[in-house]
Each structure stands twice: as C-alpha cells, then as structure tokens.
Amino acid sequence: MVQETVLRPADFIAPLFVIDGKGAPQPIKSMPGVYRYNVKDLVKECRALHKLGVPAVALFPKLAAKFKNEDGFHALDEDGLILRAVQAVKSAVPELTVITDVALDPYTTHGHDGVLTAKGDDVDNDRSVAILSEMAVLQADAGVDIVAPSDMMDGRIGAIREALDDAEHTNTAIMAYSAKFNSAYYGPFRDAVGSSQAAGTRLLSKATYQLDPANRRQALNEAGLDEDEGADFIMVKPAGAYLDIIREVRDQVGKPVAAYQVSGEYAQIHAAAKLGWLDLERCRHESLVAIKRAGADLILTYFAKDMAKLLG
Ligand code: PBG
User: Fold this and answer.
1) What is the CATH number of the domain that holds 262?
2) Does 206 participate in catalysis according to the annotation?
C-alpha cells in the first residue's frame, strides 16, 4: 500500500544483438541468456517481447570482419544488416517501438565510435558527426522510430536533428546518450559486438569523448546541451553506479529520462549468482527498482524479458 516505486513491463527497453545469415542464436559468454539473433529469430524475439508488454527494443549489429574498415563504410550501406533488421521488425510488429544505435563502433576496425584524425591519435569529431547524421537518416528511411546516438561526439544531436528534418523525418525521435561515462562496465557488450579490440586497450581509449566517471557537473551540462539541441529522450549510462546522476538529470531536464543498465551490470549479477554468492532474482529486482527510484522513466536492460514475464 505504501510502496513508492513499482516496476511494470512498460518501463523496459530490451537491447538485442543481430547477426547476418541463418545460423542458430549465438550465446554471448559474458552475458548468460543473451544471444545474437539472425534477422528471422530477431523478429520472433521482438514478437515475444511485444506480447509480454515490453514497449521497445534497441538493436545493435554484430558484423563480419569484411564489413569493417577504418572509416566504418558499412554504416552507410543501404543494404546494411541493421537496416534490414529494422524493416523486418517494423513490418512484422509495427506497434513495437524500434530504436537503433547511431555510432560507428560495430563498423570500425579500431572499435571507436567515430572515425579517426589523419594522425590517428584521436577521433575526428566533426567528420564523425557528418557520417553519423547520414547514418541516422538511413535508419529513419528504413522505418526506425527512434535513433539513439551513443557516440558522444560534440554537437551531434543538433546535426542529426537537422539532417532528419531535412530528409522529412520530422517524426523520428532522438534518444541521446547524453551522460555516457567512460566505463569499464561496457566490457561484455564489446565482446557481443566485437569492438573490444581497441576500446580502452590499445593506443586510444574512449576517454576523449566519453565522460570521466568522476564528473557530475559535466554530465549535467551534457544533458542540458542535448536537450537544447533537440533530444527527445535523455539517457544516463551506466545506471547502477550513476544513480545520483540519474536523479539530478531527472530534476534538471523536461524530457523523459532513460537509464541503461549495461552489460557489465547484468554480468556481475549473473556471475555472483552462478557462484552462489548472490540471489539472482532479488538482486535483479533491487537493481532495477533503484534505477527507477533514482528517477529513470525508462530502463534499457538485458533483464527486460525476464522482468516482463515476472510482472506481466
Ligand atoms: C557504443 C556502445 C556501447 C554500449 C552501447 N553502445 C559500448 C561502448 O561505448 O564501447 C554499451 C552497452 C552495454 O555495455 O550494455 N556505441
């Protein structure tokens, strides 16, 4: 009767990984219960999620090596995997909101979210923004409802909004990864999309464009900039270690706030449960209640399906 925070299936967005071909779902070792699906199986999974009351999915491609290069050329291929996936899901389950990632990390050999400068020692912010804007328009052409720039380049929200509007995609929304921290909790995701080779381990880390985990003021500033540039949703990521940021962003912005319980947060609960050290169901619930209590209107989580089954 006096419980203040209640979870429901409509709170969740399910991140899903997609691969080309006809093969069986590929398990991801560091993310028990999470698979990479071919397009046909992806559609099946989306149907199931929709039936369970999950309102949206966020799609991430895992590409074969031949589709990767320094410049992430395949991100602008009109026959690209992610575009085919969007079309398939939207035609089979039109009521399900589909979100696509706007970032180059699955497409670049170096695993960065943008293209590099001529010297190769940093991302080239402005050249990256131009490519990401084109990428967003292609995704909108394919019928996606929301584009989600997770790249953290400066000025990309305004540029993407303008590019979408120019292409008459005024109804395509933008979910901005606004306060995206340079986090070690992304490890299992990088295994899933195959971007781990560069990120944080070689020459460059993502520290020049993702936020320093020590910085609260900067996170609020980024959220404000993205809202001003036209973001329809503001995201904080990761979630569990950044509950203070979620709360402050919620208090500061007018738009819906999404929080991403990332791969490492999911993996650590599973790992401890596997060792018999934590109770999976209780920790899963507690971690998600905390994120919602902190102020998240929506939660991206690999637990989306489990939770919807439980709560539905
Ligand atoms: C990259 C991207 C990342 C995640 C979503 N989009 C990882 C990174 O920045 O390297 C992480 C999600 C997760 O860990 O679950 N554009």
Assistant:
1) 3.20.20.70
2) no
